[in-house]
Design goal:
Layout (H helix, E strand, L loop, with lengths): L4 E6 L14 H16 L3 E6 L7 H6 L4 H25 L4 E5 L8 E2 L2 H9 L3 E5 L9 H11 L4 E6 L4 E2 L11 E2 L1 E3 H7 L6 H9 L4 E5 L5 H6 L6 E4 L1
Parallel strand pairs: 1-2, 1-6, 2-5, 3-4, 3-5, 6-10, 9-11
Antiparallel strand pairs: 7-8, 10-11
Helix pairs in contact: 1-3, 5-7
Length: 235
């Protein structure tokens, strides 16, 4: 087992599966099975999910809505996604706790760092909802912040592509994939890995990132087994 404690970052869009909007139950069930595989190995798992499949604060601003208002709506969307994943995990007998940066006692615990760590030590999956609880911060930043707080060994960012490329592989067929790349190279080449605030936080706190394709079953377990999957951003 390569990593003892991980933070898995999933985009809200990934939960849409083949749908144009909302949550694809088949896709979320698939994710739950992959997460269970590594929990059964003894890995301590924390998760942050975006809300882009339901609502995005930036898009709301473009439509004339107040950005702060839109961002809070986006945070609520992440809680909906978190509850959906929690339900899928519990269906397959994975003990799960949902903690929110915004208090909503009827459906989840408030985020308390020590309590989150205790849950992880008891091998419960901890899902962090509502981002950082503040507008103007992405869920990438929330994931990085929580990973640092719980002292995760790595951030695993599950995306639709299987790593970091020299260019966008969907637009440029000559683009080649990096197996490993340094933080400095990402900065110098201007590659998009995650939100720059989040990326800088990872760099400053010596927290490696793995970008990989979460839609390929077995990838998560392969990473835990130490196999080369996706792209590792290291120092």
């Amino acid at each position: 087992m390569k990593y003892k404690r991980i933070l898995l970052k999933l985009s809200g869009e990934s939960l849409m599966g083949k749908k144009q909007f909302g949550i694809d139950n088949e896709r979320i069930a698939q994710y739950a099975i992959q997460i269970k595989e590594i929990v059964d190995m003894g890995v301590q798992v924390a998760i942050v999910i975006g809300g882009g499949n339901i609502f995005r604060g930036i898009q709301a601003e473009e439509g004339g809505m107040d950005r702060v208002h839109g961002d809070y709506m986006g945070m609520l969307a992440t809680v909906i996604n978190s509850m959906a994943l929690q339900s899928s995990l519990e269906k397959i007998n994975v003990e799960t706790r949902l903690q929110s940066a915004i208090k909503m006692e009827q459906i989840c615990e408030p985020f308390i760092r020590r309590r989150a760590v205790r849950h992880l030590e008891k091998h419960r999956v901890v899902i962090f909802g509502a981002g950082t609880g503040n507008p103007y911060f992405t869920t990438d930043t929330a994931a990085t912040l929580r990973a640092i707080e719980i002292e995760a060994n790595v951030i695993l960012k599950g995306t639709r592509v299987d790593g970091i490329y020299t260019a966008d592989p969907e637009k440029d067929k000559t683009a080649t994939k990096y197996d490993t790349i340094s933080f400095e190279e990402v900065y110098s080449k201007g590659l998009e890995v995650m939100d720059m605030t989040a990326f800088t936080l990872c760099n400053e706190n010596k927290l490696p990132i793995i970008i990989f394709d979460m839609n390929k079953p077995g990838n998560l377990k392969k990473i835990m087994d130490g196999e080369q999957v996706g792209t590792l951003v290291e120092f």
